[in-house]
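Lab channel / #folding
Pinned by the channel admin:
"Please post every new chain as: sequence first, then the structure tokens as a reply. Keep commentary short and put observations after the output so the thread stays searchable."

First post following the new format, from NK:
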Amino acid sequence: MTDQDTTYLPLSAAPADHPKVKAPKIGVLLSNLGTPDNYDYWSMRRYLGEFLSDRRVIDYSPWLWQPLLQLIILTKRPFSSGAAYKSIWNMEANESPLATITKAQTEAVRTEISKRYDGGVMVEYCMRYGNPSTQSVVQKMVDAGCQKILFFPLYPQFAGATSATANDEFFRSLIKQTWQPAARTVSPYFDRPDYINALATSIEKAYETAELRPEVLVCSYHGVPKRYLMQGDPYHCQCQKTTRLLKE
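Reply from TO:
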């Protein structure tokens, strides 16, 4: 059985008109931030509009924020963001680097899992913003017979604007299902030894190719408002711990 196969269970005791029941499978769904479909104005506007309308990302009142977003920001920002995306765009595959990398990650996980479980596990990826959407991939997995789904936001540190909104979209997708699969999510892995070791190995490889070994390593993380921390968001603290463990 491949990831795309749909096999039906025999229902010898069921009436002839009984709906077909798919053979049960387990799904692993990797979730990344998102990407525009292209770097042109309208593709960028759709992507930025979805991203910046998320209340987990911008929590201002829509009555105040949406007029500013729709009339000013989304009029100008798609041009500058599109130019930035064009400078790094994967022209050969016609996709953003994030899409290329996420596809490669998914294929690596799929290959490793297929060695262990021989096709009984379906591995896919989705984007919180843009395509493939979380809802479309959840539907694909349910249609293939996934009765259990492990949802894996690809963020080492937890933040409301990243992991939480990805989980939100996943759970919203389950609302639409008549037969909901059992679901669980992956915890943040900011302090897992294997993650820290992977970071250290990557850095050492970069040092090996440098003409001069740097004296200082600066770890840069995406910023969030301080009030998010004061409201209980653990992102700041988890970034601090990742850096400390990496240093050690």
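NK: The mean pLDDT is 93.
TO: also worth noting, The first helix runs from residue 41 to 52.
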